[in-house]
Design goal:
Radius of gyration: 17 Å
Oligomer: single chain
Number of helices: 8
Order of helices and strands: EHEEHEHHEHEHHEHEEEE
Largest sheet: 9 strands, mixed
Number of domains: 1
Helix content: 25-40%
Number of strands: 11
CATH superfamily: P-loop containing nucleotide triphosphate hydrolases
Length: about 240
C-alpha cells in the first residue's frame, strides 16, 4: 500500500507508517485543540521533507493571517509559495441557500480547487473547515451538499485532511453527523486544560492504534507521544 507520511512526530507510527494515499481524513475537535496546526504542519512537512506540494483551502480565514500563523512556527511559507510548493486559497461560498445554486456553486469551487491542485501538481490538500458550510447553507441542503463536496474531493487525487469543529465532548466526531461517514479516517483531538491529546478513531485500509495519546504544541508544531497512553476517563 502506498502511504502519505505526515511527518508529524509520533503520528505516522500510530497509523502504520502514514495515511493511505488518496484518502480523505477528518481532523475533528473543539476550539484550541490544534486542528489547524496539525493540518498546516502536514502540508509544510510534505513540501520540506517529502517534496510534495500542497494546497490549503480555507473557508473562513484570511489568507495572509493563515500564512502568518504558519510562520509563527518558523516555517518559511513564503519561499514555498514562491516555488509552487504551497498555495493558500480562500473558498467562495456566498448565496448558497437555494439548493440549485448551492450545487452549482460547490461544483464551481471544486473545479477551482482542482485547477489550483494541477497548477502546482499538489499531492496534499487541506480544507479548513467543513463546519463553516453551516453558515452559508440552509439546513435543508446542508447535509446533502456537504456529503457531495467531501465525496467529490476524492476525484481530485490528493491525500486530503478536512477539519471539523465539534462540541467539546469525546464521543462527537463531526459538526453535522455527515463528515465522519464520508471520511476514510478520523483523527480526534482533545483539550482538557492544561493537557491536549489525540485519538485515531478510524483509518480505512490500514491497522491503527486505538488508544488516545498525549499531544504537545511547541515551537516546531505538534508532537505526539505514541508510547504514552491516556485513559478515556481523563478526557472530558
Amino acid at each position: 500500500m502506498e502511504r502519505t507520511k505526515t511527518g508529524i512526530p509520533g503520528l505516522d507510527e500510530l497509523i502504520g507508517g502514514g495515511i493511505p494515499k488518496g484518502s480523505n481524513v477528518l481532523v475533528a475537535g473543539g476550539a484550541g485543540t490544534g486542528k489547524t496546526i496539525l493540518t498546516t504542519q502536514y502540508l509544510y512537512n510534505g513540501a520540506t521533507q517529502f517534496g510534495e506540494a500542497g494546497l490549503f483551502v480555507t473557508l473562513e480565514g484570511n489568507v495572509r493571517d493563515i500564512a502568518w500563523n504558519m510562520e509563527s512556527f518558523q516555517w518559511d511559507i513564503k519561499s514555498l509559495q514562491d516555488n509552487n510548493m504551497m498555495t493558500i486559497y480562500r473558498l467562495n461560498l456566498v448565496n448558497l441557500n437555494d439548493r440549485t445554486k448551492a450545487e452549482e456553486k460547490i461544483e464551481e469551487q471544486l473545479a477551482e480547487i482542482e485547477r489550483e491542485v494541477k497548477e502546482i501538481n499538489a499531492k496534499r490538500l487541506v480544507v479548513d473547515s467543513t463546519t463553516v458550510f453551516g453558515a452559508y447553507l440552509d439546513p435543508s441542503v446542508l447535509r446533502t451538499t456537504l456529503f457531495k463536496f467531501s465525496d467529490k474531493l476524492k476525484d481530485i487525487g490528493c491525500t486530503t485532511l478536512l477539519t471539523s469543529e465539534t462540541q467539546p465532548t469525546k464521543n462527537v466526531f463531526s459538526a453535522y453527523g455527515v463528515e465522519e461517514f464520508v471520511a476514510d479516517g478520523i483523527i480526534a483531538m482533545y483539550l482538557t486544560p492544561p493537557n491536549r491529546s489525540m485519538f485515531v478513531r478510524k483509518m480505512r485500509g490500514t491497522t491503527h492504534d486505538k488508544d488516545p495519546h498525549p499531544l504537545d504544541i511547541g515551537p516546531g508544531g505538534i508532537t505526539i507521544n505514541p508510547r504514552d497512553k491516556i485513559i478515556w476517563e481523563a478526557i472530558k
